[in-house]
Amino acid sequence: MRVTLDGVTLAYEGAPGEKVRALDAVSLAVEGGVTGVMGQTGSGKSTLLEVMAGVLAPDAGRVLVDGRDASGGAGARLLAASVGLVLQLPERQFFESTVEREVGFGLLARGISTREVRRRSERALALMGLSLDELGGRSPFSLSGGQQRRVAIASVLALRPSLLLLDEPTAGLDPRARRACLEAIRAAAQEGATVVVASHDANALAAVCDCVVALEDGRVTLDGTTRELLGNAALMREHGLEGACAARAASALRRAGVAVSGAPLTAEELAAAIVAGRSS
Amino acid sequence: MGEKVVEARGVSHAYVRKRPTLKDVSLDVAPGELVAIVGENGSGKTTLARHLNALIPLQEGELRVVGIDVRDAANVWELRRLCGMVFQNPENQFVSSVVGEDVAFGPKNFGAGEKDARLAASSALAAVGLEGLERRDVHALSGGQQQRVALAGVLASGPQVIVLDEATSMIDPRGRDELVRTVLAARSERGAAIIWITHDMELAARADRVVVMREGEVVAQGAPEDVLTDEDLLSSAGLEPPLVVRTWRVLQAAGAVLGPAPVTVEGLVSALCA
Amino acid sequence: MRAPVGYVWADSPLHRMGVPAKLLGLLACVALVVWASAPLELLTVALVVALLVAASRVGWRAACRAAWGLRWFLAMVLAFNALLFSAADPLFSLGPLHLTAAGVAQGLRVVVRTLLVVVLGTLLTCTTRPQELVDGVRRLLRPLGRLGVPVEAAALAVGVTVQFVPTLLRESRQLMRAQALRCGDVASRGIVRRAASYVRLLVPMFVSALRRADELSLAMEARGYRLDGGAASVRGGEEE
């Protein structure tokens, strides 16, 4: 699914009668793959996701879904039927008594048969490394923090959204849950969904994203491939952000006079860059 | 001062009708030491932290913090004054929306008069780099600033131990760096011991000592260079080594480097420059 | 920078008024609302409230925002009263449901009273900063301190509550949007669906409020807070 934002501006009420711009003339397009959104707290990341999801209407500008205006009519219906939004700390939305009902809720509300609901829930939970047979009958509130997060994400994955939006999906997760979460994001993209992930976690974004945009005070300040941005620690630092850990190490090595080639994103790439730097 | 600020011996704990969350935990912390506690969710880190502040009754074992037995009800407030905590969610630890009033909350509870509490609050705010923000609304601050206000609230009571329970997991990288810098400064200026519970292995690599927890037990503790380079140990605890260590392993396998793996970027730089 | 939620920057007699007096005034108005039951009485009180709104210079929109948010709930209240209040002289009956004039009158009375109280409460938050409110409660209760009323604890409780309100409000709005998306019906209206969505909202909001309260109480205890001056109260604690 192709989503295009065209000059989107959105403001909210701020101090003494003035309006604060959460988004300021944001234009960008996403289609397929995983797009990362970076930026400090308050830069507009969450607002951007909610605008893309069609739950917040922009004050100015347009959101286009597959070329159709999403502000009403067929465009809005198309968006509502095909978007999945995972908020920050999504486990705080739980309201059902069992994991099975929680994951199946959205599907049942759409009138899908119980058998199909079970099949899809099973698959969504498996994507997150969990088993419906094992956890289905348990209360979602009784699970560990990492399991809760994964169940919450599975409940959105089960809807098979063609546009999947996630806000800080890995915040507070331990390494194991974090890995499962990142794998599921990749899997969703491989199945054809257009995925947008907003996060502070440069390493998580480096692991899953094809391209990245950076927001600063509601404006898009950087827009490029993951390697161009997260692989360039100096550039990210200039914008008050953080590059991938490997890129930061590469940049520290260069400052100390060690030749390191390229823009590494992982430990393997950093090692290869160090070896390549030595031989050159 | 050879005395330990934390002395735990055989501490065990179980919540009602649940498997034990702490099993026979023994841990010493020296004055001014920076100790990182790492482990998966549910490994007992938070339960241990809450014991240090006497927020959970001690069921089994011995635990003395700053020389005070946590079972000694008469001294529990002195213990809490000397051992402060910063929690994960900045929004849920403020009692007043006015910065200065919130920071003065601790000193007032510990018996300071209105004026002394305000003075303590001002100097603590200066120590975390937020001087002059006494009248500001805490909700108007960034996450990193909020955590520093929380830290100031702890510093204002003059603690000898500061426990940070995943205090950086909900703030952005800039806020995290600010907080880390401020905590390290508080440690070197005041000599307070720091116990940092975290998932961030790059942060753990900067500690004096790393304690690894798994299913309520301390499975390893030692210098970061020893603990964070032990892949088998870490993976059995559901963790993975810092990126620098993983990079070093790849270089080692390629025969490009020799010697023990560094754990921090600074360590990597000096190892490769040597 | 985020403004204190609900506060409207303006200069009016209500903004300048002392908070203890304002709180007493609010109590008096609420008492009037409770007392009024005849249509004429309710109309008079409504007029008083309208005059207060005009005097506050916060604008009708701001003053009625919270009341407008309750429209579906109030519609339900009206329907329940109209259909279930009484079985005598029904204008219309369907099974156990009886539409009666008395029921409609009772429903309207409840709705109007609720609306008036909500508008009065909104006026208070529109014209008073949270911290002024806390100080106001403290000053208002101070004389009672001599009678053994824990004034500081009460002021603290008010302060903690008002500072959680903006967070909870923001959370509830976001939750509502996300839940609607999960059902795939952002645009859907209709009273039954609305009612169901409130239930889906209540559980997480309740859990969240409890979690916040629990975390805050833990943080307060860690910072040496004690209600009484003496005995150690160590909490039971809970899962990490």
UniProtKB/TrEMBL annotation, chain A:
Keyword line: ATP-binding, Nucleotide-binding, Transport
GO terms assigned for molecular function: ATP binding
Entry coiled-coil feature ranges: none
ABC transporter domain residues: 3-242
PANTHER family, A to Z: ENERGY-COUPLING FACTOR TRANSPORTER ATP-BINDING PROTEIN ECFA1, HEAVY METAL TRANSPORTER
Family: Belongs to the ABC transporter superfamily.
Protein name: ATP-binding cassette domain-containing protein
UniProtKB/TrEMBL annotation, chain B:
PROSITE patterns in alphabetical order: ABC_TRANSPORTER_1 (PS00211), ABC_TRANSPORTER_2 (PS50893)
GO MF annotation, one: ATP binding
Keyword Membrane recorded: no
SMART domains, alphabetized: AAA
Stretches assigned to the ABC transporter domain: 6-240
Superkingdom of this protein's organism: Bacteria
CDD domains: ABC_cobalt_CbiO_domain1 (cd03225)
Any coiled-coil regions, as ranges: none
The keyword Transport is annotated on this UniProt entry: yes
Key words, A-Z: ATP-binding, Nucleotide-binding, Transport
Family: Belongs to the ABC transporter superfamily.
Protein name: ATP-binding cassette domain-containing protein
Source species of the chain: Thermophilibacter provencensis
Automatic annotation (TrEMBL), chain C:
Name of this protein: Energy-coupling factor transporter transmembrane protein EcfT
Residues that span the membrane, as ranges: 23-56, 68-88, 108-126, 147-169
Native species: Thermophilibacter provencensis
Pfam families: CbiQ (PF02361)
Keywords for the protein's UniProt record, in alphabetical order: Membrane, Transmembrane, Transmembrane helix
InterPro entries on file: ABC/ECF_trnsptr_transmembrane (IPR003339)
Membrane-topology descriptor: Multi-pass membrane protein
UniProt subcellular location: Membrane
